[in-house]
Structure formats: structure tokens, C-alpha cells
């Protein structure tokens, strides 16, 4: 049984997560009392002179981030580490007071809010500041201060007020960044794009043991990188290894992220309480609890998403004015086990079984309720494709059992619900498959009379799968057997979009290689979907 930490509020800005003992609480209380006598933290005059000098005790080597933007709020995140590759990130067990500041300008002359949070070893020295009282649709800048040290300055942006007329939203989505497969050069391009929001849709880390070979052979890494992540310390180390990448850090500092997890944040292709290798469910839930804790610690999400043991409610909805709703899904925690033991198989009575689900009943109803929104566009932001990506023809036709193609009844219920509610402009943005795929959303893919109900765009990976190609063998097989797929590309990269009242326009941003740092990013294709018509126009 995992005990939820008690939360004590001291003043307006200091959040204290007390442990189990009175001794710890009294120690922290004394520390809070001492803050008023700490010059570096007590006044803005002293902190104004703080410098981001990288000395051995510099604690901001994992960068800064913001996330989950609301009209009056964003979450500010950092995690302290003086050495990302050392045990405990080089930190000494204990408590560290961290001042945070958010301002209307990069020089922090127009300070909006500031306060102090305590970074503790219990949360891996991470802090999540839920800043309230901000103005809607407003750009802000933020930073953190510890003693004489200042973090990098991050840029963030609040969402427009609910129902407020909005003519344009610039956003991107990314997924699948296997560290050892290549460099994260796509993030340098993303960071320079001045986006309103970025969606990360799963596989932020990979749990596998990392071999000292490939693109990053010889690069510094944690001791635990040589083994598969199984316990909290190993998961924390893996996030630190990834977050030490300067391009990933730059992307996080450039815009607010809305984040979801997929399988590799825990274990490949896990389903509910079932691991890939059918481990004892009790042991797997202990592992899942550690993995969820590490995900929360390293992700710019609110404190109320903090897991309770192996359970964490992360599906949530974000509205941007009157233009669009994004429903961010969890297609791992509540799903039925994969049909046919996973892999690729023909669809049959098992894949169509109405008792099987990829979302769980409660989340499914929540998705359907979201279709009642008055927003012009309705996006599902989630892990893997709703569309069938079939290979083989006739009796040889096979589809993956891990995506929605192995959960046909879930697809039927969601798309039938959208149709019955008269929902227009249904869109799905996903990751997972290490290739860009643009396809029509249909209820059934073996019935050519099944109407087109929306458009789905899967982004390729940031690095997973190594360099890739514009067209590979798997992509050619999908194109031959899946006429609803209108575009494919297996290079690495991400998707960048502009959404307006009249169209959804997306650029497929790719690199010709991720095995070598510094490669240029190019637009491989432009995809436009007109408002009110689920048509795919390629340019």
C-alpha cells in the first residue's frame, strides 16, 4: 500500500509535501522560517543578479519546462540535478528551497508572480508550480533560482478564454525519442517555431538496457543505463539521461507541453495490469507505480496528477477559445489485453468483441461527452493509430493488435458517437509507429462504403528507428493494402500545424539522418484539411 503524502500550504506560494514523521515536518518548518533570512531568496534585488553560470554545483542541468496551459494558469517545472549521470543526479538527500518567477518580459522587469517551492528527495527534487491568476492568451517568461544560480529562461503561453474567438493556433506534436537511436535534432527546429502549445504523445523514454553502440556510442550515461528500468531510481536516471539533451531542453523551454505516456515509459506493449512478459501482476503493478511516479516527477503536469501507487488519472481536455478542443487520452491503463497475444493478425470475432476496450468505459464516455463541445474543431490527442494500417491483401491481410485495429469495437463506439452527435471536424493526432502516416478516419476499413468521418495524422519518431527513409519496405506494404492512407514517410521528425477557422494545415518536418548531429530539418510534405470536409489535400 502506498501512502499519499500530506500537503501543507504555508502562505500563498510555498507548497510543502510532508513525509511520515514529525521530525521531518519540524525540520522543513524550520527551513521555511529561515527563508526570510536568506538574502538570495528573500528579495528580488538579490535574485536579479543571479547568473546561469555552469559551475560544479549548478542545479539546473535538466532544464525547465511549462505545461498544461489554461486561460489563467500554466504549470512551471524543473528538477534539480548537479550531475545527470551520477546517482541521485548528484544531489545530497534533503530539501532545497527554489524560488520561481514568472514575468511579462524576458528581463523580468514586469514581474507577474513569484514564490518559493521546496524540492525534496521524495519527489526526485522536482517541483511543479501551478501558477494561477494569469491573463488568457498571454505570453510569459519564467525562471527558477537556487542560491546564486539562475535557470535558463523559459517561454510559455496561456490558453485563450473558453469561447473567446480565436482565429489561429500554432501547435506541434512529437513522440518516440529513443536516446541511443540518434540525436534529437528535430527539437532544435521545433524550439525555433514560436508555438502556442506542443503535444508529446508517448515514449518519452525507453525502458530497455542501452548498449554502448550506435549513434551515441561513447557518450556519458548513467550506470543504470546498462540494464532495463525496473525500479524508481532507474526510471529517474533514464529521464535524467534524456533531459540532459540540449535540444530537448530547448524545446521544453520554448512553449508549454501537454504530455501523455504510452508503453515505453513503463514496459513495451503493456496493457492494464499485464506486462509484455506476463510477469506476476502484483510485481508488475509495483513496477508501474515506480514508472508512473518517475513520469510525474519529470513532466510539467499539475500536482493533482501525481499517482497513487500504480494508478494515475491523466486523460484530460484542453480548450483553446472557440476554435478547438484537444482530448488527451490514456490508451494503456484501462485497455483489454491485446488480441491474439499481440503482433499482427487478421481481424476476426476477437478483435471485434464488443466487450474489449482500449480506453475503458469511463474514459470512453468522457470522450463521447467531449463531442458535445461547441468548438469548431475536435481533436483526439493520443498514443497510436485509430486507422487500420493493413499489410497484405485478401486472406493475407493483417493489422496490428496493439493499436485500435485490435480494438474495433472501441473505434466503432467513438466514431458512431461523433456521428450521432453531429460532430464535424473530428481529427486524431498520434505517435507510436515511427513513421508519418496521413489517413482517413473510417468506422470500418474493409468496407469501402464506410464513410470518411475525419482525418488522422501520425507523427514519426524524434529518433526511434534510427535514420529511416522516405519510403521503406513497411511503408510500401501499408500503401498497397491500405487505400485510406494518403501519405507516408519513414524519416525521423515531427509535425507542425496551424489551425484556423477555415483549415488545418500541417507540415511534415523531417531530417535525412539522426545518426549525425546538426542535420537540417526540411518539410517533406504539407497536408491541408478544409474545415467542414474531411478531405486530405497534399502539397
UniProtKB/TrEMBL annotation:
- In this chain the PhoD-like phosphatase metallophosphatase domain maps to 171-507
SUPFAM superfamilies assigned to the protein according to its UniProt record, in alphabetical order = Metallo-dependent phosphatases
Q: Coiled-coil stretches, from where to where?
A: none
Which InterPro entries does the record match to this protein? Metallo-depent_PP-like, PhoD-like_MPP, PhoD-like_sf, PhoD_N, Phospholipid_Metab_Enz, TAT_signal
Task: Show the CDD domains listed in the entry.
Answer: MPP_PhoD
Domain Phospholipase D N-terminal, by residue range, is 62-158
Q: Which Pfam families match?
A: PhoD (PF09423), PhoD_N (PF16655)
- Any idea what this protein is called? Alkaline phosphatase D family protein
Amino acid at each position: 500500500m502506498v501512502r499519499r503524502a500530506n500537503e501543507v500550504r504555508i502562505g500563498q506560494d510555498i507548497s510543502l509535501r510532508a513525509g511520515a514523521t514529525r521530525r521531518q515536518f519540524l525540520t522543513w518548518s524550520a527551513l521555511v522560517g529561515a527563508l526570510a533570512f536568506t538574502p538570495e531568496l528573500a528579495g528580488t534585488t538579490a535574485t536579479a543578479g543571479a547568473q546561469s553560470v555552469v559551475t560544479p554545483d549548478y542545479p539546473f542541468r535538466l532544464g525547465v519546462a511549462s505545461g498544461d496551459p489554461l486561460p489563467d494558469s500554466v504549470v512551471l517545472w524543473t528538477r534539480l540535478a548537479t550531475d545527470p549521470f551520477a546517482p541521485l543526479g548528484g544531489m545530497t538527500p534533503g530539501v532545497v528551497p527554489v524560488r520561481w518567477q514568472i514575468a511579462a518580459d524576458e528581463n523580468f522587469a514586469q514581474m507577474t508572480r513569484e514564490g518559493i517551492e521546496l524540492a525534496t528527495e521524495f519527489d526526485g527534487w522536482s517541483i511543479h508550480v501551478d501558477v494561477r491568476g494569469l491573463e488568457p492568451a498571454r505570453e510569459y517568461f519564467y525562471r527558477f533560482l537556487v542560491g546564486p544560480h539562475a535557470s535558463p529562461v523559459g517561454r510559455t503561453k496561456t490558453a485563450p478564454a473558453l469561447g473567446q474567438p480565436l482565429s489561429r493556433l500554432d501547435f506541434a506534436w512529437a513522440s518516440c525519442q529513443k536516446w541511443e537511436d540518434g540525436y534529437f535534432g528535430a527539437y532544435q527546429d521545433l524550439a525555433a517555431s514560436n508555438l502556442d502549445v506542443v503535444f508529446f504523445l508517448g515514449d518519452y523514454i525507453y525502458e530497455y538496457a542501452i548498449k554502448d553502440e550506435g549513434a551515441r556510442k561513447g557518450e556519458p550515461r548513467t550506470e543504470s543505463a546498462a540494464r532495463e528500468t525496473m525500479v524508481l531510481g532507474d526510471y529517474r536516471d533514464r529521464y535524467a539521461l534524456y533531459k540532459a539533451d540540449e535540444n530537448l531542453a530547448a524545446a521544453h523551454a520554448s512553449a508549454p507541453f501537454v504530455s501523455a505516456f504510452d508503453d515505453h515509459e513503463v514496459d513495451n506493449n503493456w496493457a492494464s495490469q499485464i506486462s509484455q512478459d506476463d510477469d506476476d501482476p502484483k510485481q508488475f503493478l509495483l513496477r508501474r507505480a515506480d514508472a508512473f511516479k518517475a513520469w510525474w516527477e519529470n513532466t510539467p503536469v499539475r500536482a493533482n496528477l501525481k499517482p497513487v501507487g500504480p494508478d494515475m488519472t491523466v486523460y484530460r481536455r484542453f480548450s483553446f477559445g472557440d476554435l478547438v478542443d484537444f482530448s488527451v487520452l490514456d490508451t494503456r491503463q484501462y485497455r483489454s489485453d491485446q488480441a491474439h497475444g499481440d503482433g499482427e493478425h487478421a481481424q476476426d470475432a476477437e478483435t471485434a468483441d464488443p466487450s474489449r476496450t482500449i480506453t475503458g468505459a469511463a474514459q470512453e464516455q468522457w470522450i463521447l461527452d467531449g463531442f458535445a463541445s461547441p468548438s469548431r474543431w475536435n481533436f483526439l490527442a493520443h498514443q497510436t493509430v485509430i486507422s487500420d494500417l493493413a499489410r497484405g491483401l485478401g486472406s493475407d491481410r493483417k493489422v496490428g493488435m496493439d493499436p485500435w485495429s485490435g480494438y474495433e469495437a472501441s473505434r466503432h463506439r467513438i466514431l458512431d458517437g461523433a456521428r450521432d452527435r453531429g460532430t464535424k471536424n473530428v481529427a486524431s493526432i498520434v505517435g507510436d509507429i515511427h513513421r508519418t502516416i496521413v489517413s482517413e478516419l473510417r468506422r470500418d476499413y474493409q468496407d469501402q462504403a464506410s464513410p470518411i468521418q475525419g482525418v488522422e495524422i501520425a507523427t514519426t519518431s524524434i529518433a526511434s528507428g534510427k535514420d529511416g527513409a522516405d519510403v521503406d519496405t513497411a511503408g510500401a506494404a501499408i500503401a498497397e493494402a491500405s487505400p485510406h492512407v494518403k501519405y507516408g514517410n519513414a524519416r525521423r521528425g515531427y509535425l507542425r500545424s496551424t489551425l484556423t477557422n477555415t483549415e488545418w494545415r500541417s507540415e511534415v518536418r523531417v531530417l535525412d539522418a539522426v545518426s549525425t548531429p546538426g542535420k537540417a530539418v526540411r518539410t517533406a510534405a504539407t497536408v491541408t484539411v478544409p474545415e467542414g470536409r474531411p478531405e486530405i489535400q497534399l502539397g
